[in-house]
């Protein structure tokens, strides 16, 4: 695996969880997985590390060679290989600072790929599949087919790309493209779109849910890549992400003030009371007539990014609060998106809490202590908060898109097996309407309990999806073998 994030070492979003959990799930199926990750500031190997210096040849004329240190250590279920190069990675952010990307990101992530390939080659090859995640792994996959195309130690190595986010392409302008170590013919005259090139070139490509695989073939969702994704035909798949049920388990979660399970759910009410008390949320305002259970708390956890539908929430929040909703939002990101929410919070004292930070433990307490989890995403390749929420007995309210459409069943449309609330148009009114339906269901304690039981019974482990990756790897290997047969010498 080549990735810019891997939990618990470096995380800004779901990519990190997936790379970690998928690698472990593949390990459990008997595969050996190495994860190559930049050694960002503060990242330490999980145990005693073997250190090795790797010298990277200069990328093209005018470039300079580099020495990187590779730190290899056992993580839980796989080998973690940290690429240490302080000039590239010892910085305040992973991708940028103060809202702007580092201008040398192309070179930084090309270095990750160059280091991974040099390590594989110098250790005698033997890697069956080079599996890259998002544009940051583009250079690794592309280098395998350019600079390393004729290296006998990589001759059998197939490539696979997983697209977790098509919104970020990794555009490298021509004047910086020399650092990529790719032939000048790769890309367009003005630069290289790393994600586009990797989508076009990898033996197999996937995204993280079946619905998003279909949506992304259309101009509305393809983020400018719908043509090249469509061109890949059946070599572009949707494989639904899982979550690691051991990492996300309210019965063992040490961040919670009280643990609980489907069989013994009482602790959830304690988690909820704790959350409300700590964040100053009043769930029992007398004028509401909520009785003992109090008003419903809607939680929202994640990157404050337009993708996540924060603008829809801003438009719908007043109506939701007027209908009795309480809200807890945890996340970091786009300052403009929180400003509107903060103003609304000011008008509804005791009903809205906004926590602008990244806080793993508080996220867990919100998953446990909320009644509903909001995910009004404009697009969502998979999403995992909705799956985590269900495991914690918290009912997802989602927009019907991507992986949300594949994981949440509307409880009004499907009374017998619904486990959430779903709306379709990307409009504040549609979100507010679904919230109204959810609040009506919440008022009926018997019905609500049944919805919670169904949500908690869902199985989102990797058991189903990890074997689908193995099948995709096998296809990638077969495709690679036939490429070799038709192009002797490569
Ligand atoms: C990205 C996507 C999200 C997906 C995650 C892991 O963060 O936006 O939908 O769940 O990657 O694949």
The residue-averaged pLDDT reads 95
Catalogue the ligands.
Answer: alpha-D-glucopyranose
Rg of Cα set: 23 Å
Q: DSSP helix count?
A: 16
How many structurally independent domains?
A: 2
Annotated CATH homologous superfamily of the largest domain: Glycogen Phosphorylase B
| Span between termini | 22 Å
Unreliable spans: none
CATH fold descriptor of the largest domain: Rossmann fold
Q: Which term fits the overall shape? A: elongated
Relevant terms:
18 strands, Rossmann fold, four-stranded mixed sheet, binds alpha-D-glucopyranose, 17% strand, 16 helices, six-stranded parallel sheet, 490 residues, alpha/beta, 2 domains
Q: Would you mind describing this structure in some detail?
A:
It contains 16 helices and 18 strands. Helix 3 (105-122) crosses helix 4 (138-144). Helix content is 36%, strand content 17%. The chain is elongated. It is of the alpha/beta class and 490 residues long. The strands form 5 sheets. Strands 15-14-13-16-17-18 form a 6-stranded parallel sheet, sandwiched between helices. Residues 13-15, 18, 164-165, 208, 241, 380-384, 403 line the site of alpha-D-glucopyranose. Alpha-D-glucopyranose binds next to helix 1.
